[in-house]
Amino acid sequence: MKKRIIIGLSGASAVIYGIRTLEHLRALPEIETHLILSQGARVTIPIETRYTCQEVEQLADVAYREDNMAAAVSSGSFRTDGMMVIPCSMKSLSGIANSYADNLLVRAADVCLKEKRKLILAVRETPLHKGHLELMLKAADLGALILPPTPAFYHHPESIEDILDQTIGKALDYFEIEHSLFKRWGEKSEGRSSSD
C-alpha cells in the first residue's frame, strides 16, 4: 500500500521548500501526495519561483483548493500517514495551534492532530517574538513536530538545492521515507575523514 502524505504550502517566504519536497516525492512510486495550496502560497509562488501554481499542483497526485472544506483530507476517515506544512506561515501556525480551521490547510492539519498522525510544521519567520514561540510550543504540545528550515553545513552544501535538501531530508526521515538527499553526520566525505 502506498504511503499517503499531505503537503500544505502556506504563504510564508521560502515556498521553494514545499515545491522541492513535491519534486522529490514525485520520484517515489510508493508515495501518494495530496497538495493544499493556501491563497497566500498562490501569491508567493510566482513572486519567489519560476513555477506557476498550476505547475506546482501538477507535481502532486491530488491537489485541492484551500476553500474545499469537503475534500477527502478534511475527514479523519480518509487515512493518511500525516502532513507537512512546508513552509508554515505564522498565520497557518496560529490557526493550527488554536484549532481555527477556517480553510482546508488548517483543517487537514487539525485532522492529523486529532487522529494522532504525524504533522510537520516548517515554520518560517525571523526574528520571532514571544507570541510566535508560544504558538510553536502550543502546536508541539498538541503533537506537531516543529521543523524550521534552518540550514546545516556539516554536509558541505555546494548549492542552494543542497541546503534545501538537508531540511527536506530531515522531514522525510520523520516519515521514515528512504532518501539520499544529504550526507549524514559521521558519514565519510570524499577526500575528508570523519575526524577532520
TrEMBL record:
Its EC number is 2.5.1.129. It comes from the Bacteria. FMN binds at residues 11-13, 38, 89-92, 124. Residues 3-169 form the Flavoprotein domain. Keywords: Flavoprotein, FMN, Lyase, Prenyltransferase, Transferase. NCBIfam families: PRK06029.1, ubiX_pad. PANTHER family: FLAVIN PRENYLTRANSFERASE, FLAVIN PRENYLTRANSFERASE PAD1, MITOCHONDRIAL. This is Flavin prenyltransferase UbiX. It comes from Thalassoglobus neptunius.
